[in-house]
């Protein structure tokens, strides 16, 4: 009798356990079912459809169009060091790293470091990497606060602190990479940064190549004064508020990708040479540009401390021309909006070898508009460091002109 009662209790317990397990599984399934739509809606309603993972993935897709192998690294440059007489430029607790891509090359190839312009990132050189890597060890970086690099809080309050933000972080990256004796190329705002770097650390730079560089406009440019005098107060306040093009795209939220697509199609859909991007290249480039410009605002906030409204420099490189110590090649697109005559003006006070080369069928993005001619200009500028089996590089390549 007792054995029958015990058996009955065990049976009831087993039934209860199965019912509890079934109830738990049902609840979990219901929770999963209800969370899936919520997750989908969160993704769909995200104001800016981007993330750090999107930036990394878009870079990989763009570089997948290349034939040359490469290694991508995030080079840790440590916390922001204190600079004598200047306030800390970023929180010492924030991670600081430089997104770096190094391309496969011959063992004895000279090193060429590429630095992008304002609001851009290293991937915009994607049309040049394969050709340049045949003769250089090419290293392309995203400046601190842009592209795939870390984006610490921008705390600079004046021109000196802002220049130090970029120049010092580049020097910390150079130390971490243990580089010296390299050719240094900067485009547009990147030209301004690498010029400031070469003025401060000339011992590490073999040759300087400035592509459509900003920063050589006179500090008291009459046009700038006229603009300052007559421009609307609203425009002035917008500039001083550090209102950037990136903020516009961020503000458009889910409509931002369409605006970027319209821009890339208009600017890079076809080139003065008659060439055009493939459908895949255009798609990858649009995606890459979008994700790199809508990420957290950081380096872009430098604009009001380095420039007046427009491309007019607060601290002109013209004043530093007599102190130039590194041989320099200036490269401009034939239709570049940056005036090559500013370089001519600067060169009058330089005591080092210099040259000014103009690339035909090209504008401000000469490396995108006419890659072969741009690459020829870079090879010619670096002729003293490149190995050659013929007379190639001794004379200016066809199509290029000296200013």
Q: How many domains is the backbone divided into?
A: 2
According to CATH, the homologous superfamily of the largest domain is Alpha/Beta hydrolase fold, catalytic domain
Radius of gyration: 27 Å
Let me know the largest β-sheet. 9 strands, mixed
Q: In CATH terms, what is the fold-level topology of the largest domain?
A: Rossmann fold
- State the strand order across the main sheet: 1-2-4-3-5-6-7-8-9
Query: What is the terminal separation in angstroms?
Result: 112 Å
Description:
It is a single chain. The protein folds into 2 domains: 45 residues; 351 residues, Rossmann fold (3-Layer(aba) Sandwich), CATH 3.40.50.1820. It contains 14 helices and 9 strands. It has 403 residues and is of the alpha/beta class. Helix 4 packs across helix 5 and helix 8 packs across helix 9. Strands 1-2-4-3-5-6-7-8-9 form a 9-stranded mixed sheet, sandwiched between helices. It is 42% helix and 13% strand.
Keywords:
alpha/beta, 9-stranded mixed beta sheet, globular, disordered N terminus
């Amino acid at each position: 009798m007792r054995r029958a009662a015990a058996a009955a209790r065990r049976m009831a317990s087993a039934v209860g356990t199965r019912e509890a397990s079934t109830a738990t599984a049902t609840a979990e399934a219901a929770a999963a079912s209800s969370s899936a739509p919520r997750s989908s809606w969160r993704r769909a309603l995200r104001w800016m459809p981007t993330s750090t993972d999107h930036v990394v993935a878009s870079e990989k897709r763009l570089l997948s169009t290349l034939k040359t192998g490469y290694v991508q690294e995030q080079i840790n440059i440590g916390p922001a060091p204190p600079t004598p007489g200047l306030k800390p430029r970023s929180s010492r607790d924030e991670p600081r790293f430089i997104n770096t891509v190094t391309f496969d090359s011959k063992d004895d190839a000279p090193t060429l470091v590429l630095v992008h312009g304002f609001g851009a990132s290293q991937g915009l050189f994607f049309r040049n990497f394969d050709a340049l890597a045949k003769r250089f060890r090419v290293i392309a970086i995203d400046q601190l606060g842009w592209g795939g690099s870390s984006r610490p809080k921008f705390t600079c309050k004046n021109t000196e602190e802002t220049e130090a933000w970029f120049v010092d972080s580049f020097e910390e990256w150079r130390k971490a990479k243990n580089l010296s004796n390299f050719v240094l190329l900067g485009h547009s705002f990147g030209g301004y940064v690498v010029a400031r770097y070469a003025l401060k650390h000339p011992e590490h730079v073999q040759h300087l190549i400035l592509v459509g560089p900003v920063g050589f406009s006179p500090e008291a440019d009459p046009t700038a004064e006229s603009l300052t005098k007559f421009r609307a107060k609203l425009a002035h306040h917008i500039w001083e508020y550090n209102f950037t093009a990136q903020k516009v795209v961020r503000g458009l939220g889910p409509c931002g990708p369409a605006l970027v697509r319209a821009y890339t199609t208009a600017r890079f859909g076809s080139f003065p040479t008659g060439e055009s991007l493939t459908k895949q290249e255009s798609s990858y480039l649009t995606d890459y540009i979008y994700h790199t410009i809508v990420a957290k605002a950081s380096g872009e906030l430098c604009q009001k401390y380095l420039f007046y409204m427009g491309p007019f420099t607060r601290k002109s490189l013209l004043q530093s021309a007599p102190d130039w110590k590194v041989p320099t090649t200036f490269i401009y697109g034939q239709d570049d909006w940056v005036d090559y005559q500013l370089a001519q003006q600067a060169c009058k006070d330089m005591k080092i070898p210099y040259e000014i080369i103009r690339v035909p069928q090209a504008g401000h993005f000469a490396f995108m508009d006419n890659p072969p001619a741009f690459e020829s200009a870079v090879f010619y500028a670096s002729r003293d460091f490149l190995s050659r089996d013929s007379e190639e590089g001794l004379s200016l390549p066809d199509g290029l002109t000296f200013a």
